[in-house]
Amino acid sequence: MSIIIDGNKIAQDIRQAVREEASDLARRTGIVPGLAVVLAGDDPASKVYVGRKAKACAEVGFLSREYKLPADVGEAELLALIRDLNNDRRIHGILVQLPLPKHIVTDKIIAAIDPNKDVDGFHPANVGRLVTGSPLFIPCTPRGIMELIARTGIELSGKDAVVIGRSNIVGKPMAFLLLAQNATVTMCHSKTKDLPAAARRADVLIAAVGKPHMITADMVKEGAVVIDVGVNRLENGKLAGDVAFDEVAPKASAITPVPGGVGPMTIAMLMKNTLDAARMAAV
Ligand code: NDP
C-alpha cells in the first residue's frame, strides 16, 4: 500500500503553526509580519496566485499589500517601488510575481530586492547561500517538498534522488536541498539521453517538468517515493500532474497527488518565510 501524501493537511498544519507563532511574535515585540506582493500586467494565472497569497496572509494574521501595476510599467518605476518596499519597516517580505512582462529584465528586478526580504529565495545572494550550505530563504516550492518528505518520515541519507527539471525556482534548489540531506542527486532535463533509465534509479523521484502524465510506471522503481510538482491544465479543464498517478501509485511507497500534494505547500512555506523575515527584523 503506498502512502498518498496529503499536502492539504500538512499545509494546513503549517499555516496553523505560523498563525500561532505570528501572534506570539506580535505579543512579544509588536511586530506583525508584512508581505508585499507586486504584480505587473494581467496574466490570469498570476492574478489567481496573488489573490491566494493575500488570502493566506489574512488567515495567518499577517499584513499584506498588493501592488498591481499595468503591463507597460517601466523598469525604473518597478525598481523605485522595490526600493520603497526595501525601506518600509512594516514590510518584511517582498514577492514579485513571475513571469514579468517581456520588456522587463527579471534578474535585474530580483537583484534589487533586499536579500533579507527576499521570501521567494530567488535573489543571487540567497541562491549562493543555499548552494554553499548556509541558507537564509529557501524557494517556497522546494522547501515545501522537503517538509512533505520530512513529515512523511522519509529518510534521505544515502538515497538516490533524481530531479527532473532544472529551473531556478524548482529543480535546481530542490537538488541542493536533497544534497544537503546527503542524498546522491541526479538532475535530468530535456537533453538527458535516457530519461526512463535515469528515473528508474531513483529511490526518490521529483518531477518538475510541466508535461502532463509524462512519468509512467515503467520509469519508476518499485518502492520509490514520487513527488509530483507539475501543474498542467488539461483540455477538459482538469488539473494534472507530471506523473501518471493511477499507474505509478501502486508501485510507489509514497506519492503526492495533483491537486492536493505539493501545490498547497508553496503558499504555506511563503507564510513561513515571511514569518522568518519578520523574526529577523525583531532582533
Ligand atoms: P520550467 O518550464 O521552468 O522548467 C521545466 C524543466 O523541465 C526544464 O528544466 C526542462 O529542461 C525540463 N523538461 C522539459 N521537457 C522535458 C522532457 N521531455 N524531459 C525531461 N525534462 C524536460 O518549469 P518550472 O520548474 O517552473 O515548473 C515545472 C512544473 O512545476 C510546471 O508544471 C509548473 O506549473 C509546476 N510548478 C508548480 C508549483 C507548485 O506550487 N505546485 C510551483 C512552481 C512550478 P530544459 O532546462 O532542458 O529546458
Descriptive notes:
The structure is a single chain. This protein folds into two domains: 32-116, 3-Layer(aba) Sandwich (Rossmann fold), CATH 3.40.50; 140-262, NAD(P)-binding Rossmann-like Domain (Rossmann fold, 3-Layer(aba) Sandwich). Helix content is 42%, strand content 16%. It is built from ten helices and eleven strands. The strands form three sheets. The chain has a six-stranded parallel beta sheet with strand order 1-11-8-7-5-6. Strands 3-2-4 form a three-stranded parallel beta sheet, with helices on both faces. Helix 7 links the parallel strand 5 and strand 6. Helix 6 crosses helix 7 and helix 6 (140-151) packs across helix 10. It binds NADPH dihydro-nicotinamide-adenine-dinucleotide phosphate. NADPH dihydro-nicotinamide-adenine-dinucleotide phosphate binds at residues 141, 164-167, 169-171, 188-192, 195, 208-211, 229-232, 262-263, 266. NADPH dihydro-nicotinamide-adenine-dinucleotide phosphate (NDP) binds at residues 141, 164-167, 169-171, 188-192, 195, 208-211, 229-232, 262-263, 266.
Give the topology string: H per helix, E per strand. EHEHEHEHHHEHEHEEEEHEH
Number of helices: 10
User: End-to-end distance, in Å?
Assistant: 47 Å
Class based on secondary structure composition and strand pairing: alpha/beta
Which outline best applies? Answer: globular
What is the residue-averaged pLDDT?
97
CATH topology of the largest domain: Rossmann fold
**What hetero molecules are in the model?**
NADPH dihydro-nicotinamide-adenine-dinucleotide phosphate
